[in-house]
Design a protein that fits this description.
The structure holds two protein chains of two kinds.
Chain A (H helix, E strand, L loop, with lengths): L2 H21 L3 H25 L4 H31 L13
Chain B lengths: L3 H21 L1 H5 L2 H24 L5 E10 L2 E10 L1 H24 L5 H22 L4 H19 L6 H32 L4 H10 L7 H15 L8 H4 L5 H10 L4 H8 L1 H4 L3 H23 L4 H21 L3 H29 L15 H15 L6 H15 L2 H26 L14 H6 L11 H23 L12 H21 L5 H7 L1 H8 L4 H47 L6 H21 L1
Helix pairs in contact in B: 1-3, 1-5, 3-4, 3-5, 4-5, 4-11, 4-16, 4-21, 5-6, 6-7, 7-9, 9-12, 11-16, 12-16, 14-15, 14-19, 15-16, 15-18, 15-19, 16-17, 16-18, 16-21, 17-19, 17-21, 18-22, 19-22
Classes of the chains: A mainly alpha, B mainly alpha.
């Protein structure tokens, strides 16, 4: 299996994540989509690191995973707070910044 | 003994000191009579200095000059005084008349509140200073500045009773009408400067007489300078302001609008006569317009009921005389008439002021049979009238004679004929005024077929009318005495002239004047001729004269229409073009902002969508662009 296969897989996962972010009405679903997109990037990084024999990409991936975890925790906390205040987590109801 | 220039400068500066004192020291000005005393004291000193300057003037011109406008290493203009025979003589006239008028005003304006009396004397001093500055100007630039200053004083003094709408309007009219001519004068002076690089009168004269002045464009220059004189000296068609200027106090009319300021135009042409001598075609225009103005104003004077307006038109008419003499190329003759006219016309105005003061009205139909009540006024007024009519032994006699002789000598037959008619009319309208005011039977309703029927029937001569107080009587007697002295002197002592009048001229001119007097006598005193006969015989002319030949209406119509049309056009441009563009821009900005606002939906996913599409577009552009 060549580099292309990993890259194609990453692209597919990224697109699925983006599609989720753009179309899910539920804020938690949007967070899930973001996770997918981040992991697609991780796949890219790991694949490049493996095929160019450079460990930098792997180190970066470890960082990304850590940040992703904190991001998920933070995002879920925001969602819960949002639900407390607005009694909804539906993204299309949250339009206070409408011009 | 100080030299002529210093004396002239003293005469000039005394008035400036008086004005500055009155202008700066407010309590003095508001105190009224003390302010008048200060002003009169300075005027008296100034007159003394002026007389002394005149007596000591020699053949050479005495000049005192100071640099004024430095420019690139050389001096652009100087200020100072230039005292020669003409300017010191004129200086004496200005000094004399302004002193007498200031004394007279004290009696005439005795009922004025004190602050405005002080204001009046401040203006009087400023005027005398400006006029003397004009007379003594060594260059055209100083002359122009003083020219404008006397115009300003004329405006201020015509509008002295500024609470009266008529006076305020007359002041503005006088200002603007003369300003129209002044623009010409300024253009002329600048054009002349461009050709010669100097404003100095003596340098210019040397250039002109040596023939070094390029002839091209000279006609335009002299015409422009003449325009200034047309405005100031009330020549047709800019004469319309002078009769209206009679809204000012009568002493002001005597000083500014008879003796001094209005003659500034004649004086200007005298000062630049060597320049005009190079452009005979302009001189021809000057002569014709002068003669025509003289006739027009004389006709208008015949139908006026307001005694001051009769005198005002008579002034216009006499200015026309002087201009004709200058047009004939004999400027000194015009200047001679200017001087004698200054004396006797001031006398007439001050006499009329005494009448108005006594009767309380300007209207001739409200006067009548005043000879018994005001014998002194009657005598001095008749002296003035005889002088104006050109009767021997009185001041106007020889000067008028010389003008007629000069015009005949030059071969201007047309203007000569006009001036002879004017001589007849002058005697007629002046004696009409004399008979109506001082003599005359009680008038009946249709007496002179006028609009004043309401007054004419009643015949209201003020029962308490009496001769004026001493402050007014003394100037009158001095001027009357001067008129007689000048007249007697020149009747027997003919000065040397540059031409010889034909022998028939003097008898015929006197005869014409006598005929005018006789006709006025027959019409308004004996009543053997009904004035209605004239009005019937000259019905169209009479109606036209009553309407001032529609010249005022024409000006008003043309200028009002032109200015209004122009204003409307400018208003339209401003309202629809300038404002329109701005309004369209602001409206477009508003709607654009309103439309763009809807892009801001507030939903996070829409922004993500936007970012994704934008990123995709960027990628495609990098890949394929």
């Amino acid at each position: 299996m060549g580099l292309q296969a990993y890259l194609a897989l990453a692209a597919v996962v990224f697109c699925i994540g983006l599609f989720g972010v753009m179309t899910r009405r539920n804020t938690i679903g949007i967070l899930l989509g973001i996770e997918l997109m981040l992991n697609a990037v991780n796949i890219n990084l790991v694949a490049f690191a493996r095929f160019s024999a450079d460990v930098t990409g792997m180190v970066f991936t470890v960082f990304t995973i850590c940040i992703t975890v904190s991001e998920a925790a933070l995002g879920l906390a925001i969602v819960i707070l949002l639900f407390r205040v607005r009694r909804t987590v539906m993204a299309d109801h949250l339009d206070l910044l409408k011009g | 003994m100080a030299d002529t220039g210093t004396l002239a400068l003293t005469a000039l500066l005394l008035h400036a000191i008086a004005f500055l004192l009155l202008a700066v020291v407010v309590p003095l000005r508001r105190s009224g009579r003390p302010a008048a005393m200060v002003s009169m004291l300075c005027a008296a000193g100034s007159f003394g200095a002026a007389v002394q300057a005149w007596r000591t003037h020699g053949e050479t011109v005495s000049r005192l000059l100071w640099d004024w406008l430095p420019s690139q290493g050389q001096t652009l203009a100087t200020v100072g005084v230039m005292a020669d025979a003409d300017s010191t003589l004129m200086l004496t006239l200005v000094g004399l008349v302004s002193l007498l008028v200031q004394v007279y005003s004290l009696g005439y304006l005795s009922d004025e509140p004190r602050p405005s009396l002080g204001r009046y004397y401040a203006y009087q001093s400023l005027f005398a200073f400006s006029m003397m500055g004009l007379v003594l100007a060594p260059n055209l630039l100083q002359l122009f500045i003083c020219w404008e200053l006397v115009g300003l004083c004329s405006y201020l003094l015509i509008g002295y009773w500024y609470q009266r709408p008529a006076a305020a309007r007359a002041a503005v009219k006088a200002f603007w009408t003369t300003k129209a001519g002044d623009v010409g004068l300024l253009v002329g002076i600048i054009l002349l400067w461009r050709q010669t690089n100097t404003f100095d009168l003596i340098q210019l004269r040397m250039l002109a007489e040596s023939g070094a002045l390029p002839a091209a464009g000279l006609s335009l220059i002299t015409f422009c300078i003449y325009l200034g004189a047309v405005g100031k000296s009330a020549q047709f068609p800019l004469h319309v302001w002078l009769p209206d200027a009679m809204e000012g106090p009568t002493p002001v009319s005597a000083l500014i609008h008879a003796a001094t300021m209005v003659t500034a135009g004649v004086y200007l042409l005298l000062r630049t006569s060597w320049l005009f001598a190079l452009t005979p075609d302009i001189l021809l225009i000057v002569a014709w317009i002068g003669a025509f103005t003289a006739l027009l104003a004389a006709v208008l004077a015949c139908v006026q009921d307001d005694i001051k307006r009769v005198l005002a038109y008579s002034t216009v008419s006499q200015l026309g005389y002087m201009m004709t003499a200058i047009g004939a190329g004999f400027a000194s003759v015009g200047f001679f008439h200017l001087l004698t006219h200054g004396v006797f016309k001031a006398l007439l105005f001050l006499g009329a002021g005494a009448l108005i003061h006594a009767v309380g009205s300007n209207n001739l139909s409200q006067m009548g049979q005043l000879a018994r009540r005001m014998p002194q006024t009657m005598i001095v007024f008749v002296v003035g009238t005889l002088s104006l009519a050109g009767i021997p032994l009185f001041a106007g006699f020889l000067s008028k004679e010389e003008i007629l002789g000069a015009v005949w000598e030059r071969g201007f037959v047309g203007p000569f004929v006009l001036l002879m008619i004017v001589a007849f009319l002058t005697a007629f309208y002046m004696f009409r005024a004399v008979f109506l005011a001082f003599f005359g039977a009680p008038r009946i309703g249709h007496a002179h077929g006028h609009v004043d029927i309401a007054h004419a029937g009643a015949h209201v001569s003020e029962p308490h009318a009496h001769d004026p107080p001493a402050t007014m009587a003394v100037p009158l007697w001095i001027l009357a005495g001067l008129s007689v002295v000048i007249g007697v002197y020149f009747t027997f002592e003919h000065p040397e002239t540059e031409f010889v009048s034909p022998a028939w001229l003097m008898p015929s001119a006197v005869g014409v004047a006598a005929a005018g007097i006789l006709m006025a006598w027959a019409t308004y005193q004996r009543r053997t001729i009904d004035p209605a006969v004239f009005t019937m015989a000259f019905a169209p002319l009479y109606r036209a004269a009553l309407a001032k030949f529609w010249i005022d209406d024409l000006f008003e119509g043309v200028f009002a229409a032109a200015v209004l049309a122009f204003s409307r056009a400018v208003g339209w441009v401003d309202r629809y073009l300038v404002d329109g563009v701005l309004n369209a821009l602001s409206a477009w900005t508003l709607t654009a902002g309103d439309d763009l606002r809807t892009m801001q939906s507030g939903r996070a996913q829409d922004y993500v969508y936007g970012v994704a599409v934008g990123l995709l577009a960027l990628l495609l552009w990098v890949q394929f662009g």
